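Continuing the batch. This is chain 6 of the set; chains 1 through 5 are on the previous pages. Same settings as before, nothing changed between runs. Recording input and output for traceability.
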Amino acid sequence: MSAFKDISPYLSREFQFSELEIARIRYVIISFISETSKLAILFTVFSLMNRRDELLAAIVVLLSIRNFTGGIHLSHYLSCLLFTFSFLLGAVALAELCFPPLWIQILCLTAGIFIIGIIGPVSSDRRPAPSRKKGNVFRIIACTVVLIYILLLLNVKYFPFRNILFWVSILQILQLVAAKLIKLKKERKQYHEKIHKNIPV
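Output for chain 6:
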């Protein structure tokens, strides 16, 4: 984003933006470009596989949960793109190949609500963690979303992408568990390093 660096002095001079405000603007611009380009690539690849509609359905379900629970965050563009592609491709493949009975789907999603309520949300290390109040709000929203999906499965027997809804929800919940374990491992490592630094030689 060298172009943005070139206009940073202009933003500071003409609009009196602070360095923090400029950094926030830069983050928003970079995030927008990054996410838009990834969506374009995913859309192109899934269109070539004739799975464009499945991709769109999977993205809608994923965002409805992930936006409020967080998950695994990767720092590099390519690794993030590959992870997202693998996640969505896995969800679409499972939706086409594996059809658990309704009672198993309901049981798994109900367990997912409890998991989200206990460990969600898991934020990125590059962003400040939400306050306790905001975290509680995110948990309630995410649990409500999954509950709505359960009610849909129970009451609407035939609707498009029913199985995608289930598998994306389950994979996102599993991703949340993995993200929590990774974060706990990092925190434990940082704690031990801090202790060792304070031990006199």
